[in-house]
Design a protein that fits this description.
The complex is a heterodimer of chains A (315) and B (240).
Chain A: H1 2-25, H2 28-51, H3 62-77, H4 83-105, H5 110-130, H6 132-135, E1 141-142, E2 149-150, E3 153-154, H7 158-181, H8 183-193, H9 195-199, H10 205-231, E4 233-234, H11 242-254, H12 261-279, H13 283-297, H14 301-309
Antiparallel strand pairs in A: 1-4, 2-3
Chain B: E1 2-13, E2 16-27, E3 31-35, H1 42-50, E4 57-62, E5 65-66, H2 72-78, E6 80-83, H3 95-104, H4 110-123, H5 139-151, E7 157-161, H6 169-182, E8 187-191, H7 195-201, E9 204-209, E10 212-217, H8 219-224, H9 226-233
Parallel strand pairs in B: 3-8, 3-9, 6-7, 7-8
Antiparallel strand pairs in B: 1-2, 1-4, 4-5, 9-10
Helix pairs in contact in B: 3-4, 3-5, 4-5
Classes of the chains: A mainly alpha (315), B alpha/beta (240).
Main location (chain A): membrane
Protein name (chain A): Leucine/isoleucine/valine transporter permease subunit
GO molecular function, one term (chain A): branched-chain amino acid transmembrane transporter activity
Amino acid sequence: MRRDVQKNLLLHGGVLVALFALQFVLPAYHHGNVARIMVLATYAMGYNLLFGYVDLLSLGHAVFFAAGLYGMGIAVSHLGVSAPLGLMIGVLAGGVVGAIIGALALRTEGVAFMIVTLMFAQAGYLIILYFGEITRGDEGFVIQQVDRLFFGGDLSDPFIRYYAAFTVFCISFLSILALLHSPFGKTLIAIRENQERAVMLGYNVMRFKLLAVIFSAALSALAGATYGLLFGYVGASFASVQYSIFPLLWVLLGGAGTALGPLVGVFFMFYLIDISSGMTTAYMLVAGVVLVGLTLFAPQGLMGEIRRRFWRWLP
Amino acid sequence: MSVLVAKGLIRQFNGLRAVDNVTLEIPEQQVRALIGPNGAGKTTLVGLLSGRLACSNGRIDFLGRDITKVPPHKRIAMGMAYTFQITSIFPSLSVHENVAIAARRLCRNEKDTRAVVADALKRVSLAHVANTDAADLSYGHQRLLEIAMGLSQSPRLLILDEPTQGLAEGEVAEFIKLIHDIRQNTTVLLIEHNMDVVMQVADVVTVLNHGQVLFEGTPADVQANIEVQTAYLGGAHVKA
């Protein structure tokens, strides 16, 4: 047991150190990519909390990402609040939207849950388009450089941006690890493993699931708000169904229910498309074939497969 | 005081009355056995008592409180524990973690939890496999693990649904010893097919047939009652 804990510390600490160190060796193009990947991986971790650890498959997480993005964006651009406060408003917006959608969607299960979350996300997307005067609809709006100052640091500067992305990723990653080791996290896993039993051990399963949705939504919103601040753009495409499917793909590829899976999944997918689009215009075909292959030969995702074959101790 | 009082319980499944006007009262510290032929409504009845199924009619009081409309998780939190007829554990988690999930709800911190878990595992003699995955346990040990999960919550009423089903003879003997240990401070409602076990551990036996209480009495009374024997054991087994 103790040795497993050491291995975990070593592996996850090593990953964080490697991410930190990468910025000194990467060329500018990849430097920007990795910053983006870390923010998207935060989004994927939020998704994984619900999908991987509670076994709730949502098809509407874009609405949470967008809640963070627009919560921050509107606060910073229209209401003139500072970037740190805007970030908090974004997270809060995601949590509130998560609480409302969770309370309603959790009345359903399985396929119905997927459809209900998908519908809510579409409703969110249409709301953004409807209030085009504020949101600028499809076009979106740019967050001015003056609004992107975070305690004096200019988030449009690539190095500060990398640090910011790294910090957000670290905080989210360590929070997830801590959560999994807390009684709350262990109860979530118990619910995933055998919900009926968890009920008959006296747990209010609905309450736990709702809290999980709220955490998941808040983390997704954190990623959304951070994305807007770091890359300076807020647009309706981030609320579209595509951005609900992405986290599902990332997590499936990386390994649902593993702590590192989301990061691995985003990295893999990002560079798969990046590299294959450099070689051929039919890059989506390459991506598709690889995805099919992975689902066939590593149905538990990359980290899930590694856990199954080599490292049983992976969280 | 009675731990559990059920009055006029009815559960209707479309045309079938699985439980038909059952009244039941279990005083504190009693071991009550519930027996009856297959399809008599035993599991449905404990489903109503534990809240897994809703009553079509009737009223249930637990520790003096009306719990007829209380959801199952709250009944458990009030001091019921329930073990499933079909083993229901967390297979991919360790034996220790299985019991810890049950215990944690009532413990202040992980240290307390570990102590409670260790104690519960010791009582069912599973301490030596604490770090094994629950899925790797033998069937008999999985049944014991279920009981340990119940015990770790220090319930006021422990409902055991066919705990000896599928156990080897030696394991059944161990189980009987365990019930004698549990009864010191816990009321037990036991659904049981094995008449030897019932005769050895039950204070009072309730016999269900076609969803109704056919007979209630001590194990000796049950054995002597010809009607019960006809219903439960079949005519051929009736001894003079």
